[in-house]
Amino acid sequence: MYHPMPVHAMTRKRTCIVVPCYNEAKRLDGNAFLTFLRREERIDVCFVNDGSDDATLPLLRRLADTLPDRISVLHLERNRGKAEAVRAGILHVAGNHDAVGFIDADLATPLDEVLRLVEIREQAEAPAVIGSRMRRLGVQIDRTALRHYTGRLFATVVSILFHLNAYDTQCGAKVFEAGIAGEIFRAPFLSKWLFDVELLLRLRGLPDHPLSRTQEVPLHAWYERSGSKIKPSYLLRIPIELARIWRQYRGTGTLYS
Predict the structure, then answer these.
(1) pLDDT (tens digit, 9 = 90+) per residue, 154-199?
(2) What percent of the chain has pLDDT over 90?
(3) What is the maximal distance between C-alpha atoms in the chain?
(4) Which helix (H) or strand (E) element contains residue 223?
(5) Which domains, from first to last, does the chain contain?
(6) Contact predicate 138/224, CB 8 Å
(7) Which one, of 190, 189, 193, lies nearest residue 234 by Cα?
(8) Phi/psi of residue 71, nearest 5 degrees
(9) Which of 70, 80, 127, 256 is most exposed by smallest CB count within 10 Å?
């Protein structure tokens, strides 16, 4: 069980962005978050401390003390991995917001891009909007060639296995209508890092087929950061985890077996 820290009740309907944090004390740009939130009053942030053993938790508490009505902190006593940290945060805030989303703590996706995703979802009344790191003229997608082509290979495999047309399932910037988020985040995920694929499959399995109305939005900017929490050895587990996901969701794309 996770135990949320006492936070100020959030009663205003708005969008809340969940930010999973594991040992992010040296990378988290607190000032960037504060500046953004003071400018964009419709958006809140929920930081999820995923069992960090550095100074992340005190840093998050200081940020929450600075803007107590806009920033909340959810503390997981032990490290659960990104999927569970995001899931816990989404479920923690979904009931008090119109929309919820998540981004990475290193701000690889700039906060202005997150705002753009929020506004696109609102204007289109879409059940979900997902960012996409699509290289094209006139944008700044700062990604090494290795990660780019590895990502394209992964996307091709996912498309073949699951018949998903998404260009970039793994981009760490997504926004959902709160009620739908409550459904697709309700159950734990099979994978700590490939849960983005599961999210799309769960959307496809819901009544009214919200996946068909989901929008994939090419980002104007994305910056690769050092300090990834994914160990190189994990790459060897990707085929195994994809096979587990395929067995769980094959056929109808239903949430639960």
Answers:
(1) 999 999 999 998 999 999 999 999 999 999 999 999 998 899 999 9
(2) 79
(3) 49
(4) strand 221-223
(5) 15-249 (3.90.550.10)
(6) no
(7) 193
(8) -120, 130
(9) 256
